[in-house]
């Protein structure tokens, strides 16, 4: 029976024997913590449910921390009480009337005065102390000295705390960040982030006023409406690109060295630890997310869902107004529109040649490299571009998958097929 062991919720997310406690030096397992806090014994192979919902899991951890604090405080107080009872009681002198003194301490750096009124009625003197004062004036001078030291130490303790409070109020950097127990991410607002781990049916959704898209918060809906429906965009002064978030574009494209998280194997930098973790899967080749249709595996869940939409669902929502051809991504539509306008905005910085897309330009730039980093595994040849290696591999596999449209003869390379079609079938038609 899969219900929460505490509140009997029908959709528990966690198992008590698979959970971990916080990294606070506590060696107890979560099942021991559960028994310690609630006095409920949980047996692993029992027919009774061993599941917990996320809400009860957090409450148990919070109560465990609170109970440990109470027990530590109780032990501390009892130990101090025993020490006080075993020690020699000091001799107490009571001064009937000592006038309240008002003191003023000048601070040369800030030109401020701190005034404090100290009312002293009881003075404690240990039996082991051998200090005796002949007159009241001598005794009062010692009191003054103690009073000055107390005020100076008190001011030193208060001053840094005030500075910290001002910094906390004035800067965003000092905002406390919390770690999510579910996924390990460090976030500013743990409560808002926890919605991501709830089932979709129980999440709060806020619908856009213009379209059917829904959001988890009002700020997310406002940002969507501002960018998508109001068309608020900014132009970068460096590359003249029109972007949604100018500050983020500048940091991610033109100033990547300022990003805080660096990948050790390749040296690339990222804006968040979660982005770095996603990138690290390219080095480990770990692909835990598989498509349920074709069983192809992906490093992230978002890439897997993108694959399903593009390949299996055949989603093409971006339509060309000139030829009615549709595309999955807006960027692909923009590239296609340049075939109509013959526009080539991307220039190669090495040879000055222009290209219609950034992908083609980057592929072209590889021919200017001195290093041939694509080596054939069957012979000693190496190539500057990956597609050159793919073409070369045909000489080893002898695969012919490019048939002539006129006579059906197959060729290993498409350019060889094109040359055959022209010389064997189309040349005499052009001459005629």
From TrEMBL:
Signal peptide range: none
GO biological process: regulation of DNA-templated transcription
Boundaries of every C2H2-type domain copy: 206-234, 261-288, 289-317, 318-345, 346-373, 374-401
Keywords: Metal-binding, Nucleus, Repeat, Zinc, Zinc-finger
Annotated protein name in UniProt: Zinc finger protein
Occurrences of domain ZAD (ranges): 2-80
Region spans: Disordered: 154-173
GO MF term list: zinc ion binding
Residues the entry annotates as binding Zn(2+): 4, 7, 53, 56
Name of a matching Pfam family: zf-AD
InterPro entries: Krueppel_C2H2_ZnFinger, Znf_AD, Znf_C2H2_sf, Znf_C2H2_type
SMART domains according to UniProt: zf-AD (SM00868), ZnF_C2H2 (SM00355)
Gene3D superfamilies named among the record's database cross-references: 3.40.1800.20, Classic Zinc Finger
């Amino acid at each position: 029976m899969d219900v929460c062991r505490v509140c009997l919720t029908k959709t528990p997310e966690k198992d008590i024997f698979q959970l971990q406690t916080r990294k606070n030096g506590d060696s107890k397992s979560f099942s021991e913590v559960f028994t310690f806090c609630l006095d409920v014994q949980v047996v692993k192979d029992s027919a009774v449910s061993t599941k917990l919902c996320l809400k009860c899991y957090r409450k148990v951890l919070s109560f465990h921390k609170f109970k440990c604090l109470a027990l530590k405080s109780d032990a501390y107080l009892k130990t101090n009480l025993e020490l006080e009872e075993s020690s020699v009681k000091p001799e107490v002198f009571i001064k009937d009337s000592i006038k309240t003194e008002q003191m003023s301490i000048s601070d040369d750096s800030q030109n401020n005065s701190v005034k404090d009124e100290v009312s002293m009625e009881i003075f404690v003197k240990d039996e082991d102390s051998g200090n005796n004062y002949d007159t009241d004036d001598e005794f009062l001078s010692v009191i003054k000295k103690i009073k000055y030291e107390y005020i100076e130490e008190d001011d030193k303790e208060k001053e840094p705390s005030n500075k910290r409070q001002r910094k906390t109020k004035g800067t965003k950097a000092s905002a406390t960040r919390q770690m999510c127990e579910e996924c390990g991410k460090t976030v500013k607002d743990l409560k808002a982030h926890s919605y991501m781990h709830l089932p979709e049916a129980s999440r709060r959704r806020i619908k856009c006023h213009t379209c059917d898209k829904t959001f988890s918060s009002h700020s997310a809906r406002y940002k969507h409406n501002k960018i998508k429906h109001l068309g608020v965009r900014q132009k970068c002064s460096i590359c003249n690109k029109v972007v949604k978030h100018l500050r983020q574009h500048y940091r991610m494209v033109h100033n990547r060295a300022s990003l805080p998280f660096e990948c050790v194997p390749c040296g690339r930098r990222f804006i968040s630890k979660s982005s770095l973790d996603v990138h690290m899967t390219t080095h480990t080749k770990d692909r835990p997310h598989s498509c349920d249709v074709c069983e192809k595996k992906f490093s992230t869940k978002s890439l897997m869902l993108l694959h399903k939409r593009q390949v299996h669902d055949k989603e093409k929502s971006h339509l060309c107004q000139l030829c009615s051809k549709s595309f999955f991504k807006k960027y692909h539509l923009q590239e296609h529109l340049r075939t109509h306008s013959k526009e080539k905005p991307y220039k190669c910085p090495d040879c000055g040649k222009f290209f219609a897309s950034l992908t083609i330009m980057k592929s072209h730039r590889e021919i200017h490299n001195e290093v041939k980093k694509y080596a054939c595994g069957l012979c000693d040849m190496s190539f500057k571009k990956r597609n050159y290696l793919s073409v070369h591999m045909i000489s080893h596999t002898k695969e012919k998958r490019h048939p002539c449209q006129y006579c059906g003869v197959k060729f290993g390379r498409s350019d060889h097929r094109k040359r055959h079609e022209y010389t064997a079938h189309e040349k005499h038609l052009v001459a005629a």
